[in-house]
Amino acid sequence: MHLRQSDSHPNVIRYFCSEADRYFHYIALELCDLSLSDYIQRYAGCLDKATKLDLMKQATDGIAHLHHINIIHRDVKPKNILMTGLLTNPNNEHFSRIRVKISDFGLCKSVKIGHNSISKVSGAVGTEGWMAPELFDADASVTYAVDVFSLGCVFYYTLTEGKHPFGDSLSRMSNILSGNHFLNHLDEHAEYTSLTLISSMLRPEAARRPTASAIASHPLFWEPSKQLQFLMEVSDWIEKKEPRDPVMRRLEWRRNLVFTNWLDQLDEPLRLDLLKQRQYMNNVRDLLRAIRNKKHHYQANIFK
């Protein structure tokens, strides 16, 4: 029933029909090529960042659709994220665009209209190592956030090509219950956006995790052109604000956690080119200004 409700989305596995006899119930589903788990194992070391983000975004869209129609999946994991459309040449060198499909609806539950949670059955439901901590708390509510937690684990698994944010299989459950995740396989600077998003998805407090729809619109999944346009618009917006403005103070107060001097992080030719135009201060305002100015100067040079 849940599958019939949900299969109108391109990132949810398609249901065709069902039949039953005296002994068995048969369900005809869309044929997929392999699971995310199989895919990561098979192509580890060959996947670029854009491919991984595409897989993550499609999985998020599928979960967001389920939540939109009031369904909690409760068993999100790499083996339940299937893939179709995978085509390779004889040397396994060429990939078509893969379509991600959320599958296995055996543990799904519908949320009643007007409610945000479902009643808990006796015992924890799901797959050990991928279940949110509240599923082990007899007094906690089961909300859409349990899928978000599991999806955060899947994100880390995808980006690191097989690693788990809560460690090896022996210590995984105790780390989940104590809230100890380890994201050390992602570079804290190069993967800062991924790290902050995944950390928010793995929060022990279910109410503090983002929704699936919010994750789907996160800057991690923006095209580079959209990211650049956003930074330019922020630069224009803060240009006339005073340093003591509350917005500016919030923007600047954590800058030392990201960089000590942003100019020192630039390649020398770029730094020298920027400083030919004007002087820049070591603050976020001037970093955004430099990004905006460089974009404008680049466009101007193209049309000269």
TrEMBL record:
Database matches in SUPFAM superfamilies: Protein kinase-like (PK-like)
GO cellular component: IRE1-TRAF2-ASK1 complex
Gene Ontology biological-process entries: intrinsic apoptotic signaling pathway in response to endoplasmic reticulum stress; IRE1-mediated unfolded protein response; mRNA processing
InterPro entries registered for this protein in UniProt: IRE1/2-like (IPR045133), KEN_dom (IPR010513), KEN_sf (IPR038357), Kinase-like_dom_sf (IPR011009), Prot_kinase_dom (IPR000719), Ser/Thr_kinase_AS (IPR008271)
TM region(s), chain numbering: none
Domain annotation Protein kinase: ranges: 1-221
PROSITE patterns linked to this entry: KEN, PROTEIN_KINASE_DOM, PROTEIN_KINASE_ST
Sample GO molecular function, one term: ATP binding
Gene3D superfamilies cross-referenced by the UniProt entry: KEN domain, Phosphorylase Kinase, domain 1, Transferase(Phosphotransferase) domain 1
Domain KEN as annotated: residue spans: 224-304
Key words of the record: ATP-binding, Nucleotide-binding, Signal
Source superkingdom: Eukaryota
Protein name in the entry: Endoribonuclease
Source species taxonomy: Eukaryota, Metazoa, Ecdysozoa, Nematoda, Chromadorea
